[in-house]
Structures are given as C-alpha cells and as structure tokens.
C-alpha cells in the first residue's frame, strides 16, 4: 500500500511538471502529506420525500400543483426546507464562459439554517433562483471568488431584477480586491434605471437598490447565527487575487474552489470538509473543443485551471465525504471522472445545473427531474 501511494505521488508530481513544462514551478504541490485514505460508506441515494404533518402535506400539494404548471424543478426542493440543521448546496450554474443552455454561468447557492448565500453570479443565476422560487429578498448576500466576467455578468440582473421582484434590503457583496470598485461602477452604469424606478415611476423602496460591497482577503469573511464563511486564496494563474470559500454551519461544511489550478492552500483550508466542490478542465475535450483561441491561448487557459487527473489528487488529499465537479470546462467533459480515478477512489459526482446536495449526517444528492 505504501508503495502504491508513493508511485501515485511520483506520477502526480511528474504530471504537474509535464503540464506546466516548468520543473519545480509547483514544487510544493502535491506536497508531502500523502495519507492512506479510506472513505466512509455513504448513503448517496435520495430518500423519498418525508411528509409527516398535515401542514407539510398541504405545502407539498402546493408545490406539486406549482410544478404541474411551471415544470418539475420546483418539486425537487423539499417544501419544508431542511428537516434539521444542515447545509443545502444548489448548483445554479455549472458552466464556463460559453453561453450554452445546458450549463449556465458559475453560481452556487448555499443555504445554512435560514440564511442564504450566493457564491459567484454568472449568467442565468437570477433565472435559476426564480426557477427554484427562492425569494429575492432572501438572496441578498453574494460572495465573489474573482472578477472574471463569467463569474460576475449576472450581478446587474440579481441586483436590479431582484429589487424589482421584491428585495427591499441592500445587496451585500464580498469579493477580492476591486470588488467594491466594480460595484460602484455598476451603480453608475445603472443610475438612470435606479433613478426612474426609485424616484420617478414605480417609486420602489430605496433600500433594495442599495449595494454594500466590501473587498476581502484571506480570513473569516462572515460570522453570524452559527454560520462562518472563510475566504482563502487560490491560484488562478495571472488572475490575482482569486479566492475559494469554506462555509461552516452546525458541525458541517462545504468548500468551494472558485477558479484555480491545484492549490496547496485550498487543500489546507478544505481539510475535514464534508463536501468539496471543485472546478475542472477536461484536457482532451478542451484541446479539441476550443476553436476561438490560438494554441498558445488554449495552453494558458489550461495552466490556470485544474485537470481531472489533478483534481483526483486534490480530492485524495482532502478526503471529503463527497467531491463534486462544478465550473466544468468545456461544457461536455466526458473524461473528468476517469481521469480523477487514477488517484481518487472516493465519492465523486459531476455537477449539473439545479443539482442540490444536502449535507448532514448523511449526504443526499438530488438531481433535477430524478
Ligand atoms: Zn476565472
Ligand atoms: Zn471561470
């Protein structure tokens, strides 16, 4: 066993070196702490919806009726919410800059107790929230991993449509350096619309149009009512700073990679986490799929993301109860499970839009329409 782990380490080390072509550039990665790893047996099957009270039953009927007219996605959310303290993660968008219908832009909703948090706000995040019937007044806390456009183009929609659709509290935004400046510029860009709706025409509540933005670095970014959100720096190549996040609540946690190539700091901050959601790039599929970039540009993109095989090493070292891919490049990435399996035998899922994960004593995965 010791021998095979050692072989894997050497393999992974040479893989990293061959990928970057720069020996020693990632010398600290994959690092020394390779541990023997056995993963716990999980009940990943989705249990039937538990309805025990008349109130819950009528709530379920309302949802089922809504689903009959508005599609079946709504029925995937348990009407009673989380049955006990825990974390629910919903992947609103699992895609990348490509504007395909199958994967909306990067955005993840995390619900902890009665608090809701958005991580990134890519294209379509607002539609997904509406599809899930999440009240916009409750979707008022947004954490950004970095300022690449695919992670931020949905912000004006969330901010302004959310306001028009009932948010009457300010939108709070945390993100790396220059986040506050970006939000200030957005306020200037939409000043006419805000003025018309707030002061002249509909006269909507002023509070809902306000933005409270704050630049943050590594450290605890938020702590309230038992929820702690910790930001940590990741390695997105030239795109600095870039952050990942870990949310802890009621003895459980989820860690989100943001965009990064294999990051020793992420492995450190993710230790002991229940669910690790990590970006991935399918090397073979991406090299074949990208027709707009030059070969040199393609290699640059590859160098600041994480391949399936590299993700396998990260998962092996973090040992989450469940690993999930999101921010999948390209949108069709058929090799990312097999690649990770070279190094990691634990629970691993390819994310899809509107897939949700309940984290408690058990980890339950709900896929839309299933
Ligand atoms: Zn990025
Ligand atoms: Zn991205």
Describe the fold and architecture.
The chain folds into two domains: 49-81, no CATH class; 82-366, 4-Layer Sandwich (Metallo-beta-lactamase, Chain A), CATH 3.60.15.10. It has twelve helices and 15 strands. It has helices at residues 2-20, 54-70, 125-131, 149-152, 155-164, 179-189, 191-200, 264-269, 283-289, 295-303, 308-318, 336-340; strands at 87-93, 107-112, 115-119, 141-143, 171-175, 211-215, 219-224, 227-233, 243-249, 252-256, 275-281, 322-329, 348-350, 356-359, 363-366. The protein starts with a helix and ends with a strand. Mean pLDDT is 84; it is low at 1-76. One zinc ion (ZN) is lined by residues 96, 106, 148, 150-151, 259, 327.
Write the topology of this structure:
Blueprint: H1 2-20, H2 54-70, E1 87-93, E2 107-112, E3 115-119, H3 125-131, E4 141-143, H4 149-152, H5 155-164, E5 171-175, H6 179-189, H7 191-200, E6 211-215, E7 219-224, E8 227-233, E9 243-249, E10 252-256, H8 264-269, E11 275-281, H9 283-289, H10 295-303, H11 308-318, E12 322-329, H12 336-340, E13 348-350, E14 356-359, E15 363-366
Parallel strand pairs: 3-4, 4-5, 5-6, 10-11, 11-12, 12-13
Antiparallel strand pairs: 1-2, 1-14, 2-3, 7-8, 8-9, 9-10, 14-15
One zinc ion (ZN) binds at residues 146, 148, 236, 239, 259.
Short description:
With 370 residues, this protein is of the alpha/beta class. Helix content is 31%, strand content 22%. The longest helix is centred in the N-terminal third of the chain and has 19 residues, at 2-20.
